[in-house]
Please model this.
Amino acid sequence: MKIDGVIFDMDGLLFDSEAVYQRKWRDVAGELGIFLPDKFTIEISGTSGQRTIDVVQKYFGETVDPQKIRLEVRRRVTKELMVHVPEKNGLHEILDFFRERKVPMAVASSSAMESIEHHLRVTGIREYFSQIACGAQVALGKPAPDIFLLAAERLGVPVGNCLVFEDAINGIRAAVAAGALPIMIPDQIQPTDEIRALCFGVYDNLIAARDALKKIIDES
Model:
């Protein structure tokens, strides 16, 4: 099987940071007397820009400033992650797997570029990635395909020959829309049967994904 590039989401996929985001969303909502249902997690995960604003407005109501809410959540998350960035199981193993096979890698994350660079550097994995694409660099956030198309373009490879690693449903839909090969490592939300059918593979963690891909890639 020919794989020309690999694109990784960041929050909830490389790092256990999506849980921090969800906790801060609920902290801010609670302070405003707002209850956020589980569906909020599905709709907000992996989004950026106007898409995030729309979801915040939907669940927080018309009386709040969604941009102010978004910035406050980001401020609280950034403060916590400046102290410690928790790594996902298998992070270094999956990156070594692709580097040993000389497959170029990129990060495509809805987070701010400053946060992406910080997280990659403090965990010692910045050198693995030749390219980074962030949410502010595209017109539409996930589930639109823009960020994955940009990452593939920067890698200089056909997006159809790229694996995209994602933890969120919005990210899987974006990868499918881009024409990439989506691999889901579920974090906050488990995939539905519909989402599973869209994926090239669904694995419990990055170690399991590496082991499965080793058979697929090396034996093809």
Summary: The mean pLDDT is 95. The two ends are 5 Å apart (CA to CA). The beta strands are 5-8, 105-109, 131-134, 162-166, 181-184, 201-202.
